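Weekly structure sync, notes
Attendees: PL (lead), two postdocs, one rotation student
Agenda item 3: pending single-chain targets
PL asked that the sequence for the first pending target be pasted directly into the notes so everyone works from the same version. It is reproduced below exactly as submitted, 236 residues in total.
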Amino acid sequence: MFKKFLMAVIIFSLFILAGCSSNAKPMEIGQIPWGNYQRLTYDIFENDKLVGTAEFTIEKSQSTNTYDISSITKIDSIQLNTGTTIRSDTLMPLSSYYNVMSPQGDVKIETTYKDKWNIKAKTSKGEQNLTVKLPKYYYDNDSLLMIMRAYPFQVGAEFTIYDAIASTAQVVPITNKIVSKEKVIVPCGEAECFKVELKAGAAKQYIWYSDDENRLLYQYDNGKLVYKLKKVENNK
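Predicted structure, written out during the meeting:
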């Protein structure tokens, strides 16, 4: 169950390792839709059965030009906590953490992004340190679902970004295509949404973002689990 949970929750963890390209381009950024504080809560389903919850929080720093994006995901007896500090202008990461708590043991990963990607992992088997080469432009995996809300969506548009996945120490090129508009119904309500296909190799995942100034993530299907928006809070 522990391995199954990790493979389902970690975005793109099934995607293959790829080399870093000098042709990497930054993600186009339109309007930042989340303000200085926002919390989004999701129900998580597997084959239409409620199996867990997830909570994403975005908060702007008062002293630096950064946002802190954190998440808490709970499924059965396992909890995954993540956090990423990103630049407010480029949305590229400065640091992150990734903590799994389970009956099988805890995993703690801390990363810093500088000239290279420094990763420190602590498990029941000890501590490991790793340095990974980075492309010129890259984004942290655990904040990716949220930062993509800032993209200026248009049906038919397509762009590729490099995704840094701390849990697997991989840097993966992800092709994103806005394939259509669809009406989506979730516990929070219903909305007309842009449907985005994310692809790396043969693996595909889908995200639905609302077609309005809030650009809320209404639904996310990673091929194993489906996240459905339940609640939106814009104030502490």
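Discussion points:
- The chain has one domain: 2-233.
- The helical segments are 2-9, 144-147.
Action: rotation student to compare against the earlier draft before next sync.
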